[in-house]
């Protein structure tokens, strides 16, 4: 039997390549020559770390999935006023399956700087998929989401139609969810994590 020159590549490496390319659409673009790999800029803010495969969700009502205490297997501690006002009333329908890519923030940066570095169209995520990621670590166990006090940042449209930085962080009492405008001038600390599609 002849030796396959690809025997050195394992399934984990295949999945890592698949997620770095952006899932099935990214693979198609790469094979068509529309996606070009280049050496990362030394000034970059983000480094791809991991990914979460999220299923299609037919209907997601936030009010049924976020609340103090344990709700649908997720332990919640607190929500800021922006999150309560703009995201608890939110309903999302026919949310397509996707791969959420996690990126480590390499240097302190504000939201506008981070958004410039994410490929157009990939920066906006769904509340339903943020919640799905939380269900995988509902009690604060390790996983793709950080549970070390650093923020997990998602860019999601609120019920007002504007883009907000929604961030989840874990403390011993549960998950806290907060939202602030992407125009907010303060910076995120290096070591935080940003999610995109």
Any key phrases for this structure?
single chain; 197 residues; alpha+beta; two-stranded antiparallel ribbon; 5 helices; 32% strand
Q: Which runs of at least 5 residues are low in confidence (pLDDT < 50)?
A: none
Strand order of the largest sheet: 1-6-10-7-8-9-4-3
The SSE order reads HHEEEEHEEHHEEEE
Sheet having the most strands: 8 strands, mixed
Strand % is: 25-35%
| Count, helices | 5
C-alpha termini separation: 41 Å
Total E-strand runs = 10
**Structure classification:** alpha+beta
Quote the average pLDDT. Answer: 90
Q: What is the CA-atom radius of gyration, in angstroms?
A: 18 Å
- Apparent shape: globular
Helix content class: 10-25%
What's the quick description here?
The chain is an alpha+beta fold and 197 residues long. It contains five helices and ten strands. β8 and β9 form a beta hairpin.
What would you note in describing this structure?
The protein is of the alpha+beta class and 197 residues long. It is built from 5 helices and 10 strands. An 8-stranded mixed sheet has the order 1-6-10-7-8-9-4-3, with helices on both faces. The radius of gyration is 18 Å and the shape is globular.
């Amino acid at each position: 039997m002849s030796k396959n020159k690809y025997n050195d590549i394992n399934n984990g490496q295949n999945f890592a390549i698949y997620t770095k390319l952006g899932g099935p659409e990214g693979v198609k673009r790469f094979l068509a020559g529309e996606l070009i790999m280049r050496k990362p800029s030394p000034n970059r803010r983000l480094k791809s770390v991991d990914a979460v495969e999220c299923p299609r969700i037919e209907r997601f009502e936030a009010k049924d999935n976020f609340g103090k205490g344990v709700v649908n297997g997720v332990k919640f501690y607190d929500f800021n006023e922006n999150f309560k006002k703009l995201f608890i009333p939110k309903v999302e329908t026919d949310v397509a399956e996707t791969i959420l890519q996690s990126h480590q923030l390499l240097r302190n940066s504000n939201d506008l700087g981070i958004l410039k570095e994410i490929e157009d169209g990939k920066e906006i995520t769904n509340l339903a998929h943020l919640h799905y990621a939380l269900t995988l670590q509902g009690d604060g166990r390790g996983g793709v989401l950080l549970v070390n006090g650093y923020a997990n940042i998602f860019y999601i449209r609120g019920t007002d139609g504007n883009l907000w930085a929604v961030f989840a962080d874990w403390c011993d009492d549960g998950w806290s969810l907060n939202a602030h405008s992407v125009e907010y001038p303060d910076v995120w600390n290096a070591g935080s994590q940003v999610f995109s599609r």
